[in-house]
Design a protein that fits this description.
The chain is an alpha/beta fold. Helices cover 32% and strands 19% of the residues. The protein contains 8 helices and 7 strands; from the N terminus they run ααβαβαββαβαβααβ. A 7-stranded mixed beta sheet has the order 3-2-1-4-5-7-6, sandwiched between helices.
């Protein structure tokens, strides 16, 4: 990983994150994302036909899987983390998922359960045209081979099927994933840390895999494999930290890139 000295989240950060999970604050944020998706897909999705959905890189806490199932979809999640770890880490994940789902009403047992599959997103373990739509939240920025993932998405999506993808842009003030784990959007920067350090001097370690793609790279790649129906910035952050001096230093990036923390792409597989 690129970057300088490792500076890990503080105990206060972890405690605040845990409290957010416990009180339902994090679940409310995930619900807002689900509402965005419903609104964007409503004009294009036939709910009577579209029942099978894939949550691509669902994450350890699997919040969108739970929300999609609560909406009545037959939901499948694919992520390496679905290979459940043992010991304290595994038990911690189970507890956090249980707390999350306390705030999400689940359907009765007659609905088909969702499947959680431990697999690589570059080689999806499904037959061609298996899904009516695909969703992914805050995962694409971590994929090493974005074109390969898009190839696989196109393969397993039925003709005319939709993809709803929400990306945490690397160019945003929190895009280095190394500033604050408990604020979405970012409102406070630790003392001694330069805003957009990951685009400037890289004094702080980037300790998670990031492909560092920019907005227009994603749009160009999606356009090669799908018809782009809609795209927009879904969440702003960092405008109060973007001084004229920083904007001049980062003139290779436009203001929209620097202040957009979450970018949504809605795409359709061509018939």
């Amino acid at each position: 990983m690129k970057g300088g000295a490792a500076i890990h989240p503080s105990i206060i950060d972890y405690a605040r994150f845990g409290w957010q999970v416990l009180t339902g604050f994090r679940t409310r944020g995930e619900r807002r994302i689900a509402e965005e998706r419903r609104s964007d897909l409503a004009p294009h999705l036939d709910r009577k036909r579209s029942r099978r959905v894939l949550d691509l890189a669902n994450g350890r806490l699997q919040p969108q899987c739970a929300l999609l199932r609560a909406e009545g979809y037959r939901t499948f999640g694919v992520d390496r983390v679905n290979r459940s770890p043992q010991g304290l880490t595994g038990r911690g994940d189970q507890l956090a998922r249980w707390i999350y789902r306390r705030h999400i009403p689940q359907p009765g047992p007659l609905l088909a359960p969702h499947g959680l599959i431990g697999s690589d997103v570059e080689s999806l373990p499904f037959r061609d045209e298996s899904f009516d739509f695909i969703t992914s939240v805050a995962a694409f920025e971590h994929f090493r081979n974005v074109p390969r993932v898009l190839e696989e998405m196109r393969r397993v999506l039925r003709k005319g099927g939709l993809a709803w993808i929400r990306i945490h842009l690397f160019t945003s003030i929190s895009g280095g994933h190394n500033v604050n784990i408990s604020e979405i959007p970012l409102r406070h920067i630790p003392a001694g840390v330069d805003p957009w350090d990951h685009l400037r001097r890289r004094k702080r370690l980037i300790s998670v895999p990031l492909n560092e793609w920019r907005r227009d790279q994603y749009l160009e790649a999606f356009g090669r494999y799908f018809e782009i129906v809609k795209h927009y910035c879904a969440g702003r952050e960092g405008e109060e930290f973007l001084t004229p001096a920083i904007e001049t230093e980062l003139s290779a990036y436009d203001r929209d890139e620097l202040t957009c923390g979450a970018y949504v792409i809605v795409a359709r597989r061509r018939p």
